[in-house]
């Protein structure tokens, strides 16, 4: 394995809604991930991915998003919980790629207005991640009462999230390294 090549772990903001509280969470996670040495990251806002609704799946693949996922060693998906589920547009975007995800790590950050920190949306996404061929880490990022976590400028108000997300990111980085080694050095028999 090339230890000189940094890991590439993009952060995907998984909603297109206006006034989304999860945008501050995605920017926070992106900033914290960028602090880790040996990691390159990019914030991918699904709002910026031009997808049609006249077709689906790989037929509407966006070349830029597909290239980022192909290059990725791991992913962070920041997703709000909407009525116990995940946004349909996130699923629409994720379904445009398939082989690009296989044997790559993914960490899920759930965002909610209530006290459960997106636990239910993460539970709902786990089988989707598996079906896509992604390997979920066992730590989640849970962000409760999302509208109260950041000030008007998007600055985090509750510093306990710094240590929590650091633990999450260290697990994701470790899993991304291990899976990259496996993809590059272990033949699938």
Characterization of the model:
- The protein is an alpha/beta fold and 189 residues long.
- The protein has helices at residues 22-34, 63-71, 88-94, 119-132, 160-185, and strands spanning 7-8, 11-13, 39-40, 43-45, 74-80, 104-111, 134-136, 141-143.
- The chain has one domain (7-185): Rossmann fold (3-Layer(aba) Sandwich).
- The chain is built from five helices and eight strands.
- The strands form two sheets. Strands 2, 4, 5, 6, 7 and 8 form a six-stranded parallel sheet that branches. Strands 1-3 form a two-stranded parallel sheet.
- The chain is globular and about 50 Å long.
- 35% of the residues are buried.
- The model has no long low-confidence stretch (mean pLDDT 95).
Give keywords.
single chain; 189 residues; alpha/beta; Rossmann fold; 6-stranded parallel β-sheet; two-stranded parallel sheet; 5 helices; 8 strands
